[in-house]
Each structure stands twice: as structure tokens, then as C-alpha cells.
Amino acid sequence: MNYIWFGTLLTCTLVLTGCNDSTPNDKADGKALFAHYCESCHGQTGNGKFLQGIPANAHTALTRQEVINLVLYGRDDKPAMPNFRKQLSPRQAQKVADYLLFTLKAQ
Ligand code: HEC
């Protein structure tokens, strides 16, 4: 009987925590990708953290293609921005850029 309870508890814990921590898959939309990869620094609304020197990326002057390239490969003139070449596919980088430039920027 105890084993059944333990098993149920373990499964619930894994399901609950797993959902939040899991890496977004190919079907993840720009919002989910942004939340996973960008929000910790730039904030949920893309307003950045002024005191930590993180710019409001939702108001960037960069073009869509420049944002995609920045996210994937970084830029020499923005050395403090990490690149996500290993985590994001080019398609995912496009989705994140579109979310940033068309959804967040409009807010
Ligand atoms: C570890 C913190 C961190 C994470 C995570 C992060 N960024 Fe940044 N980002 C920065 C910093 C710091 C800069 C400023 C870079 C510089 O000027 O050297 C920046 C700059 C930018 C800029 C340029 C803003 C401008 O016009 O100057 C864009 C766009 C941007 N980030 C988008 C993103 C996106 C999209 C993601 C998620 C895929 C992301 N960032 C994840 C820290 C972060």
C-alpha cells in the first residue's frame, strides 16, 4: 500500500515540476521560448533590468533579422548578450524574434 502512495506522489511531483523545467520542444511558440530563454534577464514584458544593465529588448532598434542573428550568434557590439546557438534552432530564433518585435513591442 505504501508503495502505491509513494509512486503516486513521485509521479505527481515529476509531472508538476517537470512541466515547468522542461526545455521547450519544436512546437513551443515564441512566448514559451521567450519565457524559457529570455525572461530571466529581460523580464516578462521585455523591459529589461535597468539596474543590472540589461536593456529593454522589446524596444530594440534592431531589425528582425538582426535580432535573429543576435540570438543565434551574438554580436560584437553587444558582448553582454549570451547567444543561443546550442539551444535554439533558426526556426525557434525566428519565433522568439517575432514574439519580441510584434507582440511585446506592441504592448
Ligand atoms: C543572461 C542574461 C540575458 C539573457 C538570458 C538574454 N539576454 Fe538579451 N541582452 C542581455 C544583455 C546584458 C544585453 C545588452 C548587450 C550589450 O549591450 O552588450 C542584451 C541585449 C539584447 C538585445 C539588444 C537590445 C538593444 O537594442 O540593445 C536584444 C534584442 C536581446 N537582448 C534579445 C534577447 C532574446 C530574444 C533573448 C532570449 C532568446 C535574450 N535576449 C536573452 C542579457 C540577456
From TrEMBL:
<protein>
    <submittedName>
        <fullName>Cytochrome c</fullName>
    </submittedName>
</protein>
<dbReference type="GO" id="GO:0046872">
    <property type="term" value="F:metal ion binding"/>
</dbReference>
<dbReference type="InterPro" id="IPR036909">
    <property type="entry name" value="Cyt_c-like_dom_sf"/>
</dbReference>
<keyword id="KW-0479">Metal-binding</keyword>
<dbReference type="InterPro" id="IPR009056">
    <property type="entry name" value="Cyt_c-like_dom"/>
</dbReference>
<keyword id="KW-0408">Iron</keyword>
<feature type="domain" description="Cytochrome c">
    <location>
        <begin position="25"/>
        <end position="104"/>
    </location>
</feature>
<dbReference type="InterPro" id="IPR051459">
    <property type="entry name" value="Cytochrome_c-type_DH"/>
</dbReference>
<dbReference type="GO" id="GO:0009055">
    <property type="term" value="F:electron transfer activity"/>
</dbReference>
<dbReference type="GO" id="GO:0020037">
    <property type="term" value="F:heme binding"/>
</dbReference>
<dbReference type="Pfam" id="PF13442">
    <property type="entry name" value="Cytochrome_CBB3"/>
</dbReference>
<keyword id="KW-0349">Heme</keyword>
